[in-house]
Design goal:
Length: 423
Amino acid sequence: MISKTKSNTIDIAKLLSFLCPLVYFASYLTRKDYSIVLEAIIQSEHITKDAAGFVETLSLISYGAGQVVSGILGDRFRPQRLITTGLAATIVLNVAMPFCPSSIRAVVWFLNGFAQSLLWPPMVRIMAATMNKKQYDDTCVNTNIAGISGTVLIYLLSSLIWIRIFNNWKLTFLADAGIAAVILAVWLIGFRQMDPEGKLFAKKRDQKQIRNEKTETSETKTKLSLKLLLGSGFIFIALGIILQGMLRDGITDWVPSFIADTFQLQSDKAILKSVALPILGVVSLKIIGFINNKFVKEEVRAAGVTFAVGAACCCLLLAVYTQNQYVTLFTSAVIVGTMHAVNLFLVSIVPSKFAKYGLVSTMSGIINSLTYVGSAAAIYGFGFISEHFGGWNACVISWCVIAALGTLVCFIAVPAWKKFKAK
């Protein structure tokens, strides 16, 4: 176990509850910037939607694959070093992005995806090892909110300043890299104050079991196996994670183009109006965080219920999306908000239940990688569908189907997951 006094443990948890959301804020700034200025790139460089989306798809592939690598490394090496390395690398790559010719942009953003993958799984391990259940759940909510807040900032800066005033989407990358560099400095200073002798996670240590009790208990290191995954119902949970990734990131990234095409808007206006999506995401996470602390006892069932709400909203969107841009934006934002809630249940909370097996970081890496399998498929796929197979109407129909499937697989997984947690 991490040997700390009670007062010191509380101090560490409080400091990490500030540092982890801050790092995740920087992560979203330097990862979502390309997708947010995607429509501006399409309009300024006169390229097709699927060609522009391919750059983001490559990044998501490397991000997803890197999550598995990062998860394994995070259970074996100092997780704080992985976070520092990943954030430093992504700053450099964001600075490089505006100066790259379009022919190698995909390579740079592919590398950025891998750099970003070094952040979340080690962060989950750090939180799981230093926080009790309430602290962990609250910090997960705040970390997700911080990430979405980073998205809000990019929307506002890009639409109101970099594109509207300067007519230059490239400034988005430079500004985001500068903010992230400041946050990296805060992370290094903060972690050094918390661990001045560099002993925290210096070698393989037990993690705190994330349960309702506040006492620390030892974990049993277990080899990840197909039997463990099948017995927990994780195969169906994994499908749910992929499907929520498709809706959360696919809709978020394509809504500026969706409303620009549907209502004949310029890119800066479409980007500015699309800020409704991450803002409602913040609101939904605050609400879900409260509900989770007060009422939710079964996170997979809660994800299924939330998916069902998202499916109903997708059907509503299909009926009304051509009528009014503000109704379309609000309905799209509600759908994305429900998927942020599903993400909290399946991506943030589910990995902590593997703490007793010593697999928190590993499972977090696997789970987060599945999210971006869905994201990569959706960002390229929705662009391809809109370009070649029936336009945005066909895309919205696909959103309805995806949400319905997500509801189904979550409810199928509930019985096995309950038995797994009870062991």
